[in-house]
Amino acid sequence: MNDSAAFNAGDVITYSTNWVGTLQVDAGTTTGGSFNINRTGGNVSVTPGAALDILAGATVNLSGANSLSDGTNSVNIVNHGSFDVLNGNHHVGDITGNGSVKVENDTTLAAQSIKTGTLTIGAGATVTIQPISGGPLAGKAGLTAVPEPSTLVLLSLAAIVGLFSIYRNKR
């Protein structure tokens, strides 16, 4: 983030946000500390590899407009605490760590990948995992259902029994 000025708890920051390097959110000497991101305007720029590191006991609350992506690059989330998406539409990079991720009701979160301890999705919320460029799903509009091997075995057995019945009735 842009660290050109000092801010106090509860201050409203109206500057553009520049994500460079890693911002570490620490609960402090007690658990329960939180960092609130409520973006309502200004520009966002994200340097590739930028990260938000949420330590155990800390919480990041995300609301407002898309605050962790500039449309090309997105902030990666290393979460060992709690990452709560309260409202709005948001894009992030990879979400990793053993913490909890909560996407509240009627909220949208798009991520490159999610590997976390707990993922809670509220009523009407949407979570989207982006296909990896060049990966097995790149450029595909949807997924194709592939029958399980046991289904194929059952279908084969049904066909054999059917053919045997026809053969037997003709004799």
Tags for this entry?
171 residues; five-stranded parallel beta sheet; mainly beta; six-stranded parallel beta sheet
Please sum up the structure shown.
Helix content is 13%, strand content 36%. The chain has one helix at 149-170; strands at residues 17-19, 22-25, 34-39, 44-46, 51-54, 59-64, 76-79, 82-85, 89-96, 100-103, 108-115, 118-121, 126-129.
Structural class: mainly beta
Please give the radius of gyration in angstroms.
Answer: 24 Å
Please give the order of strands in the largest beta sheet.
2-5-7-9-11-13
Strand content: 35-45%
Biggest β-sheet strands, sense, barrel:
6 strands, parallel
Number-wise, the strands total 13
Order of helices and strands: EEEEEEEEEEEEEH
Helix content: 10-25%
Shape: elongated
Number of helices: 1
**Roughly what is the average pLDDT, rounded to an integer?**
83
Question: Ranges with pLDDT <50 over ≥5 residues?
Answer: none
How far is the first residue's CA from the last residue's CA?
83 Å
What does this protein look like?
This protein has about 170 residues and is mainly β. About 15% of the residues lie in helices and about 35% in strands. It is built from one helix and 13 strands. A six-stranded parallel β-sheet has the order 2-5-7-9-11-13, with no helix packed on it. The chain is elongated, with a radius of gyration of 24 Å.
